[in-house]
Amino acid sequence: MIESLQQKKYRAQYRQFMLEGIKLLKEAVAAQYPLSQIYISRSAFVKNLLADVPVNPNNIKVIRDSEIRSMSSLKNPEGVVAIGKIPQSKFLAVDSEICPFLYLWEINDPGNLGTILRTARWFGVRHVLLSPNSADPFSPKVVRGSMGAIFYISIRQNVAPDDLFDYCIQQNIAVFCADPTGAPVLENMPKRWGLVLGNESHGLPEAVKHVAHDIIAIPKYGNGESLNVAVSAGILLYELLRQEKA
């Protein structure tokens, strides 16, 4: 069953995902993230790799090195694999406070999604919402790329834009859509806002941009064609938060 968690359909079926390596395990434990099982190879166990990780010994299972290699998605596994529980992805209650939030429209690349989650954690963004047809946030590559951020951020999948924007209107939340045709970030920022980022190749559809409080862009001083979406997320979050706190 463990090997099957490398595939999205089985992660969805079992509501579980894999995390690999001692660093990610430490992050999960520090965040008090629910883990159902921890597997450690015999060679890693001999090295006392879990000595400074405060985990329940009853949740640890020592297995052969070959078994770790068969369940791992890495070429050179460290010898530690844990199974995390995927929380139920429910939409927001009317009184939920999610600001600031990120809404990611069809971000398909797992590396980009992992980096965006890592960036969101750095800037204190605790809520990330994903549209339908987005990368699976619990895939091994996203989990690794997030560098543990996935254990600290509330992630909601398959959020339809109409549902989100209706919620924002009800809650008086400003929605900023990132697009090359936009203007620089406002100086007088509202206190409650969310940032919408679009697909790596196609950006945001007009139907999504139409509901924006404002269309914002990163000024270009060189002659590059475009910025990576994860890089754009970091720049825009910095500027939005800087203006908000000014």
What Rg do the Cα atoms give? 20 Å
How would the global form be characterised?
Answer: elongated
Question: Could you spell the SSE succession in H and E letters?
Answer: HEHEHEHEEHEHEHEEHEH
Question: Which architecture of the largest domain would the CATH scheme give at its second level?
Answer: 3-Layer(aba) Sandwich
Major beta sheet, strand line-up: 7-6-5-9-8-10
Q: Tell me, rounded to a whole number, the average pLDDT.
A: 91
Question: Topology of this structure?
Answer:
Layout: H1 8-14, E1 16-20, H2 22-30, E2 35-41, H3 42-46, E3 60-63, H4 65-71, E4 80-85, E5 101-104, H5 110-122, E6 127-130, H6 140-145, E7 154-156, H7 161-170, E8 174-183, E9 193-197, H8 206-209, E10 214-216, H9 229-245
Parallel strand pairs: 2-3, 5-6, 5-9, 6-7, 8-9, 8-10
Antiparallel strand pairs: 1-4, 2-4
Helix pairs in contact: 5-9
Written description of the protein model:
By secondary structure, the chain is of the alpha/beta class. The protein has two domains: 2-85, 2-Layer Sandwich (60s Ribosomal Protein L30, Chain: A), CATH 3.30.1330.30; 101-245, Alpha/beta knot (3-Layer(aba) Sandwich). 32% of the residues lie in helices and 21% in strands. It has nine helices and ten strands. It has helices at residues 8-14, 22-30, 42-46, 65-71, 110-122, 140-145, 161-170, 206-209, 229-245; strands at residues 16-20, 35-41, 60-63, 80-85, 101-104, 127-130, 154-156, 174-183, 193-197, 214-216. The strands form two sheets. The chain has a six-stranded parallel beta sheet with strand order 7-6-5-9-8-10, with helices on both faces. Helix 5 packs parallel to helix 9. The longest helix has 17 residues, at 229-245. The N and C termini lie far apart (51 Å).
